[in-house]
Design brief:
There is one protein chain. The protein is 31% helix and 20% strand. By secondary structure, it is of the alpha/beta class. Helix 4 crosses helix 5 and helix 6 crosses helix 7.
Length: 163
């Protein structure tokens, strides 16, 4: 699988409250409605600028804070296909898997790229290509890739039950 798009760049410790503001967590929102609020407190232009295939490259501990699953759902539904960071908060990482959003680890790329750069990620080979060079990430297992390509845990489980 290949992911291609432009880069949104953020720093360390981006927490779930700026990814998906807490004031919306008590409203019953669809994934599309959640996407309307993705990163609005950190980057108000994200929702309007994000296109299918785009990628977030961030610093360490992305997704720290509360356990709200809406954060991963909002980013994915906005069109973002992957997040690359040196590390992820544990629960956010799991929420990415559950919602079908690739969370890839690399501790070199963030300091080398600029927001708006083009990126190409080859999931099967573990290679990231950007104008400034080529980077590697630990390839997800086939099971994890299957889960993510299915759109997350619930669609993956439904598919398996139908087989």
């Amino acid at each position: 699988m290949i992911i291609e798009g432009k880069i949104f760049k953020y720093g360390d410790d981006v927490n779930t409250d700026v990814i998906f503001p807490g004031k919306y967590t008590y409203e019953p929102l669809t994934p599309e409605q959640m996407a309307e609020h993705a990163l609005e407190d950190l980057d108000p232009s994200f929702r309007e600028m994000c296109e299918p295939g785009d990628v977030i490259v961030a610093g360490k501990n992305f997704g720290c804070g509360s356990s709200r699953e809406q954060a991963a759902i909002a980013i994915r539904t906005a069109g973002c296909k992957a997040i690359i960071a040196p590390s992820f908060a544990r629960i956010f990482y799991r929420n990415c898997l559950n919602s079908g959003l690739f969370a890839l680890t690399n501790d070199q790329i963030q300091s080398k790229i600029k927001a708006g750069d083009r990126i190409r990620i080859d999931i099967e080979s573990g290679i990231i290509e950007v104008d400034c060079g080529t980077f590697h990430f630990p390839k997800p297992s086939d099971d994890v890739v299957g889960l993510l390509l299915a759109g997350g845990l619930i669609p993956f489980t439904r598919k398996k039950l139908e087989e």
